[in-house]
Amino acid sequence: MSYKSPAPTPSNPLPASTEPQAQAQNAATGSPSAQAVAAQQSDNVAHALAGAGGGLLSMALTYPLITLSTRAQVESKKADTNVVQAIKRILEREGLGGLYAGLESALFGITVTNFVYYYWYEFTRAYFTRTMQRSRLSTLESMAAGAIAGSATVLITNPIWVVNTRMTARKEETSEPVLPTKEGEASAPAEKKKAPNTLSTFLKIIREDGVTRLFAGVLPALVLVVNPILQYTIFEQLKQVLEKRRKVTARDSFLLGALGKLAATSITYPYITVKSRAHVATGAGSKEGMTASLKRIVREEGVAGLYGGIGPKVTQSVLTAAFLFAFKDILYDATVKARRTISKKA
């Protein structure tokens, strides 16, 4: 469905910024290597833009489920996982806006995250394809491409997700549990406070906890790089099988994306819980390591504590991934079409 041009290699590198004369000559003569590099970069950007747009749309559609799962993950008590009760409690305390707490930072975060991820994934995959002189990557090569892209994405975007988790959880706004407890005890409605915005939350973290807190949860986040690796590996392998029979449609991408994300999220969920708690931790808890956090949750809450909110999270992840793949294919085709139209007019 997409045109893949050769990626830069040691024998065919990107023009260096220190060689403007060579760049000018390449551009002027329209050398095949320069055209190939330009085409590959354009294709990478097209994938990145499509991924960013698809992520933004899918996140907006499924965000209330993120709110439910995040609050269940960070609640230290054993929260009732009844989704209907959780929704009712949030609506009573915060109104409809409570289900969309932190949406602005999430949309910004998913746009940046997907742009960075897809750019590096497509760049790395194209490089491997050129180096191995094959049109398809093996499973290990696909996983390596995903690992490189995922690690770069985590390091660049972690501060955005720390801010988003703080805004979504809203733990500091009330001493009341963020979800109904298992005992279901009644309590007076908490006093509503003005919801913090992205900038105020960002500045508050820096002022009270220091810049390093913006990188809380980086270790479990790096471990979670395996999530998209598993997701995209499963997706690509299923897609390749289907492509041998017929053209893959947006509906196919929706279903394959859902299957890939279902498997990946179910396997890696305990680390998602640990990462979320690290994002909102303060005081002594902010210094707790990943392994220590895992052990403490199991000791205090049992294994079930590692899977708090898994129902809404799996549902959200599957729907988001499914919508993402469907939207991405549509947006990619539209981006390529627009690029060709502009090229013809130029």
TrEMBL record:
Mapped Solcar repeat ranges: 42-127, 137-241, 252-334
Compositional bias segments (type: Polar residues): 14-30
Highest taxon of source: Eukaryota
Keyword Calcium: no
InterPro entries documented for this protein: MCP_dom_sf, MCP_transmembrane, Mito/Peroxisomal_Carrier
GO molecular function: ADP transmembrane transporter activity; AMP transmembrane transporter activity; ATP transmembrane transporter activity; coenzyme A transmembrane transporter activity; FAD transmembrane transporter activity; FMN transmembrane transporter activity; NAD transmembrane transporter activity
PROSITE patterns associated with the record: SOLCAR
Subcellular location per the Swiss-Prot or TrEMBL entry: Peroxisome membrane
SUPFAM superfamilies given in the database record: Mitochondrial carrier
Membrane topology according to the record: Multi-pass membrane protein
Cellular component, GO annotation: peroxisomal membrane
Transmembrane segments: 98-120, 140-163, 214-234
Pfam families for this protein: Mito_carr
UniProt keywords, alphabetically: Membrane, Mitochondrion, Mitochondrion inner membrane, Peroxisome, Repeat, Transmembrane, Transmembrane helix, Transport
Region (Disordered) residue spans: 1-33, 172-193
Residues making up the signal peptide according to the UniProt record: none
Chief localization: membrane
Listed Basic and acidic residues bias regions: 182-193
Similarity-based family: Belongs to the mitochondrial carrier (TC 2.A.29) family.
Protein's name in the database: Peroxisomal membrane protein PMP47B
Native organism: Cladosporium halotolerans
